[in-house]
């Protein structure tokens, strides 16, 4: 299919804007040839008007009808074939295997939400019969269900052009709930987003969805993003990205006359705590496992382990040596965009430049284009506790190693942490009693706690929590992954004393 570079305003292509841009091929370090047109305020208004008009129709469709729409989106994405894989790779520098894996995950998520809404069980309906004979006050009949909020704004993520972007988890869950979606496409992979948008629109037409159930807006402008989240027709926002970007959008949401839910996943340094017992058991296999997680996807995962914590003991230096070795054996990797490489170099150099830091491992040779090597730095536990700068996320294959004097100091480090997506403990059976304070500390800091495992790789399932205390996520009560993420886009409503023949319609 041809990528026009225009915006999708409902089922119409539109490109009236005068501001244009191109995406980057990070491997070649050149611009791709497609010219994208930034959406104007007028086009934004039109997309919002269509979404607002579509909402009363779309929310009344049966779960089976919306499920058919989601399954059709999955089919249409698959029908894009190698053309989608090609543009994905040209806009990210990521390999074909990663592109195909992410496409598979995107399709699976859509099909999972389709299955979720095939019955009304997901609404968690509660029906309580009236008790007219109760004294001193009769009890009315009460029935509780969940209703969709309205049009949702979704922001595509830079590091996942498919699974967390145009038809990713936020879009799939919002459409499943009965909410129209307006996507602000990520400018680093606008071509990928355009192809996926075409698939969504095609599926909407095939399944008879109302025009405006989906729109896709191109823009490199922060102004359009803030205009979108501040608009009165938007009823909730889904965001995956940096803390700076997420917190800035949240400020705009809070300034609205009618504040709305803002669900943001804003990164994490994902600490791994390693006991002396685990180090004593063996360092090589564990070092290789952790190193592999650090460099996976050039460290461009929100679940990359950016903080390694252990007690300084007789096996600590052996572990560092093995970790160094594993990192040095890693091939140079390409980051998704020149700006991301610049930030990686700047932030990792900033941490390495702090006087407390010892640069354990880093390849000094300058790499062409957007290629990077992993970096590892080391500090003591008391230095980490004293300096909050060490908690800053470095997006890329960087990790900070913290040597603590004892388990008590390691526990203090965990207690000093901000909210995280994940935390991990590597330990042996003999350590179970010993690590109880670490478990308690981690439970108040993370959304997912792992044992003898690394955090990269987020299973899409009902048991998954992808979120965590602020600033990892803006609302720790919800997950951004799995069928439970649908509850971000609905609100409860209770019906009292309604006739059964009317109630049956109200509860579906």
SSE map:
Elements: E1 7-9, E2 12-14, E3 20-21, E4 24-25, E5 30-31, E6 36-37, H1 41-58, H2 63-79, H3 82-92, H4 96-116, E7 126-128, E8 142-148, E9 152-155, H5 169-177, E10 181-184, H6 190-206, E11 214-217, H7 222-230, E12 236-240, H8 243-254, E13 262-265, E14 271-274, H9 276-281, H10 284-295, E15 307-311, H11 316-328, E16 333-334, H12 338-353, E17 358-362, E18 371-372, E19 375-380, H13 381-386, E20 398-404, H14 407-416, E21 420-426, H15 436-443, E22 446-451, E23 490-496, H16 500-506
Helix pairs in contact: 2-4, 2-6, 3-4, 3-6, 4-5, 10-11, 14-15
Could you describe the largest sheet, including whether it forms a barrel?
A: 7 strands, mixed
Give the overall average pLDDT.
95
Alpha carbon gap, first and last residue? 38 Å
- In helices, the fraction of residues equals 25-40%
Tertiary shape:
globular
Structural class: alpha/beta
> Major sheet: order of its strands?
17-19-20-15-14-21-22
Tally of strands: 23
Q: Note poorly predicted spans.
A: none
Classify the beta-strand content into a percent band: 15-25%
Radius of gyration: 24 Å
**Discrete helix count:** 16
């Amino acid at each position: 299919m041809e990528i026009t570079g225009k915006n999708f305003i409902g089922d119409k292509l539109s490109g009236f804007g005068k501001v244009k841009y191109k995406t980057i091929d990070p491997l070649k370090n050149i611009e791709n040839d497609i010219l994208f047109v930034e959406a104007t305020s007028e086009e934004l208004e039109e997309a919002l008007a269509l979404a607002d008009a579509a909402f009363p129709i779309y929310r009344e469709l049966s779960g089976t009808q919306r499920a058919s729409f989601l399954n059709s989106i999955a089919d249409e994405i698959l029908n894009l074939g190698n053309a989608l894989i090609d543009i994905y790779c040209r806009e990210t520098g990521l390999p074909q295997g990663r592109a195909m894996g992410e496409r598979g995950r995107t399709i699976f998520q859509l099909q999972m939400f389709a299955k979720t809404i095939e019955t009304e069980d997901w609404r968690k309906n509660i029906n309580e019969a009236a008790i007219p004979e109760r004294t001193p006050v009769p009890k009315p009949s009460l029935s509780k269900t969940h209703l969709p909020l309205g049009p949702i704004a979704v922001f595509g993520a830079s590091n996942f052009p498919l699974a967390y972007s145009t038809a990713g988890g936020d879009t799939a869950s919002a459409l499943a709930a009965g909410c129209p979606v307006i996507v602000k496409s990520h400018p680093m992979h606008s071509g990928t987003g355009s192809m996926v948008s075409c698939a969504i629109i095609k599926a909407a037409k095939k399944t008879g969805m109302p025009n405006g159930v989906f729109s896709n807006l191109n823009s490199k402008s922060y102004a359009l993003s803030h205009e979108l989240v501040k608009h009165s027709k938007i009823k909730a926002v889904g965001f995956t990205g940096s803390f700076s970007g997420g917190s800035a959008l949240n400020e705009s949401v809070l300034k609205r006359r009618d504040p709305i839910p803002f669900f943001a996943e804003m990164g994490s340094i994902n600490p791994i705590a390693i006991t002396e017992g685990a180090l004593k058991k063996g360092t090589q296999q564990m070092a290789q496992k952790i190193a592999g997680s650090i460099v996976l996807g050039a460290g461009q995962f929100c679940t990359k382990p950016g903080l390694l914590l252990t007690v300084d003991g007789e096996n600590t230096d052996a572990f560092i040596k093995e970790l160094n070795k594993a990192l040095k054996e890693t091939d140079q990797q390409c980051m998704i965009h020149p700006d991301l490489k610049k930030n990686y170099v700047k932030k990792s150099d900033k941490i390495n430049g702090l006087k407390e830091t010892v640069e354990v491992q880093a390849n000094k040779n300058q790499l062409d284009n957007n290629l990077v090597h992993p970096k590892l730095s080391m500090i003591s536990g008391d230095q980490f506790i004293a300096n909050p700068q060490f908690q800053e996320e470095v997006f890329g294959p960087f990790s900070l190693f913290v040597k603590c004097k004892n388990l008590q100091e390691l526990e203090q480090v965990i207690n000093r942490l901000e909210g995280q997506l994940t935390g991990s403990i590597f330990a042996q059976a003999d350590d179970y009693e010993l690590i109880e304070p670490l478990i308690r500390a981690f439970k108040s800091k993370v959304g997912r706690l792992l044992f003898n495992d690394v955090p990269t790789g987020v299973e899409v399932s009902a048991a998954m929590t992808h979120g965590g205390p602020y600033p990892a996520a803006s609302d720790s009560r919800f997950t951004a992954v799995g069928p439970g993420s649908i509850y971000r886009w609905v609100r409860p409503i209770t019906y009292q004393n309604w006739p059964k023949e009317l109630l049956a319609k109200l509860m579906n």
